[in-house]
Specification:
Rossmann fold, 3 domains, five-stranded parallel beta sheet, six-stranded parallel beta sheet, 460 residues
């Protein structure tokens, strides 16, 4: 049994540890019948993926004993991001291959993070869908050893995976195919990487709510608007969701702080970046916004895309980047973060976008217990304040209104500071309206650093 499993390289997920399921120990789980491909195609694919820095689990089912998946193998399947079944002529003669495939399908149904990328090595998808005798006859030979329920489970898994767009070896050299697979996995891994804070607390429920609004299997084009006051965590929430689902789309683009770009007259740059991200091309050159609009709706209308428009503050910004549903292909999702949802109040006579395509989510203020925990992570590097700092911690958390950004900045600035500095900061905070997080952050950022460039202290 050969596998790539290096605990030193098993880094945390792109969501910064917000979800245990995202902390995958492997990027790819290879599912194949050993005698068919182990010493040729699968071995070459393994080394190509491994050489690209992709963590691969390569299992040899021939040495497996018993009839149940368990232990290390179950752990490897559960903790992989991508599943690559390699369908060969004798694939279905292996009960182990079928067990693994069925479990992979179950995992992918439970989580949008799990993606199946099938390779049809020397068979056709019709064979895998059991429309020919090749796989159908092989399955019949298992009927004496396995229950009808398990056989049915295998059949459903085969037909479901055969419907997924994958790769075929026909009219293509193995080297070319291996490069295509390696490049695609690399792109999908890179696509889902948005940097989020080290400590994400109390966000899981909000992520689930937004995911429900996005609708995993719906083929409509849908806009989800994440709104709330500044500093409450809209962008972080959008990043976490983006990381979880990006691999499900043909193209993705996360456009950060659109308000700032708009103020600087750089909407054309955003149009250019959006197209470059989605079309995976650096040769696109847009010279004016009208041309950009025509390019976006002309080149993206057949693609299932995921777009995040972060920090929108004017309707015109949406109009120039992602105004209408028919600009994008079926299943596309556009996530918008904004402080002002009045941008989306559409006139009844405006048919450019029906209100039903909008789904709104207002980010909630952190619960007191979560706010104290988040603040303590940055101020004390623990989940709770020391007893002697409990009172002042609770006062600071209350004044900052449970806003994550204010808690992080304030907690970071007070790390390793004296009680005198803490009391001084508390006194200054009491003089400000707690909702004006921008003023709080401005005062901190104007201070000089006493803890190095990663720690900002407040100085009068």
């Amino acid at each position: 049994m050969k596998r790539k499993w290096d605990s030193d390289t098993a880094t945390s997920s792109a969501t910064g540890g917000a979800s245990e399921s995202l902390g995958a120990e492997f990027d790819v789980f290879l599912n194949f019948r050993g005698p068919d491909t182990r010493l040729n195609f699968t071995d070459l694919l393994y080394h190509s993926l491994d050489g690209a820095g992709i963590r691969v689990f390569l299992d040899n089912e021939e040495i497996r004993k018993g009839e149940k998946i368990g232990g290390e193998l179950l752990h490897a399947i559960n903790d992989s991001r991508f599943y690559v079944p390699i369908f060969s002529k004798n694939y279905t003669s292996s009960a182990w291959c079928l067990r693994e495939l069925a479990h992979m399908v179950e995992c992918s149904r439970r989580s949008t993070e799990k993606v199946i990328l099938p390779i049809f090595f020397d068979v056709d998808p019709y064979d895998v869908k059991l429309r020919t005798e090749l796989y159908a006859d092989a399955l019949k030979k298992h009927e004496d050893r396995f229950s009808s329920d398990e056989i049915q489970r295998w059949k459903k898994a085969l037909t479901e995976v055969a419907s997924i767009k994958g790769w075929h070896c026909k009219d293509r050299g193995q080297g070319e195919l291996i490069k295509l697979v390696t490049d695609e996995v690399s792109r999908k891994l890179a696509r889902g990487v948005r940097i989020v804070p080290d400590h994400l607390i109390g966000i899981d429920r909000q992520v689930k709510t937004v995911m429900d609004l996005l609708g995993k299997d719906s083929l409509d084009v849908r806009f989800v608007v994440i709104h709330g006051m500044g500093g409450i965590g809209k962008t972080t929430l959008a990043k976490v969701v983006f990381n979880k689902i990006a691999s499900q789309f043909d193209g993705c683009s996360f456009l950060s702080d659109i308000r700032e770009f708009s103020q600087q007259g750089k909407i054309v740059k955003l149009q250019n970046r959006l197209l470059s991200d989605i079309l995976k091309s650096t040769s696109i050159k847009i010279h004016d916004t009208d041309f950009g609009i025509n390019m976006i709706r002309g080149r993206c209308c057949h693609k299932k895309v995921l777009i995040v428009l972060d920090n929108l503050d004017k309707r015109d910004q949406l109009v120039k980047l992602a105004e209408k549903c028919d600009w994008f292909g079926p299943g596309s999702r556009i996530i918008v973060t904004t402080r002002d949802i009045s941008l989306f109040k559409i006139n009844k006579n405006n048919a450019s976008m029906h209100p039903k395509v909008y789904h709104f989510y207002e980010v909630e203020k952190m619960h007191d217990s979560d706010a104290i925990r988040l603040f303590s992570r940055y101020a004390f590097e623990s989940d709770a304040p020391p007893l002697e700092y409990d009172r002042i911690t609770r006062e600071i958390v209350k004044i900052t209104g449970g806003l994550p950004l204010a808690l992080v900045v304030t907690g970071s600035s007070l790390f390793c500071e004296s009680e005198e500095v803490w009391e001084d900061v508390l006194a200054k905070l009491k003089k400000m309206p707690h909702k004006d997080v921008r003023e709080i952050l401005k005062r901190f950022r104007e201070g000089t650093s006493s803890q190095g460039e990663h720690r900002t202290s407040w100085r009068a």
